[in-house]
Prior knowledge:
By secondary structure, chain A is mainly α. Chain A is built from ten helices and no strands. In chain A, helix 7 runs antiparallel to helix 8. The radius of gyration of chain A is 19 Å and the shape is globular. The two termini of chain A are 38 Å apart. With 289 residues, chain B is of the alpha/beta class. Chain B folds into two domains: 2-123, Up-down Bundle (Glutathione S-transferase Yfyf (Class Pi), Chain A, domain 2), CATH 1.20.1050; 143-288, Rossmann fold. Chain B is built from 13 helices and eight strands. The interface between A and B is large, with 64 and 67 residues.
Amino acid sequence: MAAELxxxxxxANMMYATHGNPISHCLQCGTxxxxxxxxxxxxxxxxxxxxxxxxxxxxxxxxSNTYWSCASCYHCTVRCPAGIDIADxxxxxxxxSMWKSRFKEGLIGPDFSEAFVKxxxxxxxxxxxxxxxxxxxxxxxxxxxxEALTATGLVLKGKIPLLPKRIKRLKKFQRMVKRIIPLGELx
Amino acid sequence: xxxxAYYPGCSLESLAKPYQLSAKEVSLAxxxxxxxxxxxxxxxxxxxxxxxxxxxxxxxxRNLAIAEKTGLTEFVAPCSACFKNAYYTNNxxxxxxxxxxxxxxxxxxxDLHVEGTLKVRxxxxxxxxxxxxxxxxxxxxxxxxxxxxxxYYGCQLLRPRKDHEDVENPQFFEELLSAIGAEPxxxxxxxxxxxxxxIITNRKAALExxxxxxxxxxxxxxxxxxxxxxxxxxxxxxxxSQVNREFGTDYSIPVMYFTQLMGMALGxxxxxxxxxxxxVPKAREAVTA
Lengths: 187, 289
């Protein structure tokens, strides 16, 4: 049996288009952490996460909120002196955590992404009210009221349509998706 | 009129309707023919990539394939996230024949095939490069004289870097605003993230990110914040009241798409640019005053 892959290698394998995006080139300079607009809200900074991946701290990395706090703004990516696409690495961590169903409790990100993909597979287009049902129950009562007021205002202004849109060739579109992910019957 | 394969993206059919209206009006006035591609699907924004990389590229590739089929050579997106997804998917398809093969196998189900030969552009690039600052200036009938504007570039219009362009302190948005007679302000946070979908998945973080952007614009005396992306516009405009509630501020600054501002300068009626629909009531006064 093959030797178990290091976490570093497992994450590299989740980055197809960037061909593994070698995070081993990281200098640990901290430019990413100093740049990241969400760093204050992360359990570990991006610099620390890269160091932890390289040292195989798999459980600690997966249990942190760091990668689900990334907004994909790519500010770290364009500043990294070692040329690492750090935002892409955060996506790879998200994919890994979705694949293994391992993430910090209480996060909205994983449910939101899953709901988004299901919505697209079912209709081909995105539709805010369907998405809202996936995250609203997780909000505090006060936040829920605020969000409902905001949404009602938007509907009244004609900015949110009341019925979801669908693409025309939906059946063909769904067969296309199945050639990539064998989803079984779509719900 | 030069024709473009136009991909509006989902937001322009709902939350960003004013962007759709103004983009079409201004393009027409400047001689750009935006041909909306048929039966396009959602590009996935930032929500497919956390689930499956190959599926994310396939969904974008379907739109590129539909555009290629029209025979047009340029693909234009007004949303920065759609633009970034289309730009990089197109690039990867061109550079990686294995990836293209795999995706084309899936596209066969919809009788489509993608080559990655399109030139993918954001609407603001088309305005700047194909129409040009001089031509825009010559068409201005109602210069936005005295209007102080914070030019907010946001993220995915600029990043990741495509070539060797300046992503730290770009100037093209300021130049465009000057061309329509407005006064672009120095705005240090102009490329700092608005929080994007964190507004849903991490509300606390996103509201703080929005607060910083609003604060600098207001401190510098901006009348309006100008945007190039539906997500930025929604976060800065719609969630302004929630920032006020969270931080005890009383911010009330209009947030407008660059196409709405251009439309005003070209003399197009505000209602045709979706300007009456702003959540922040001061928008209209600020521009028409």
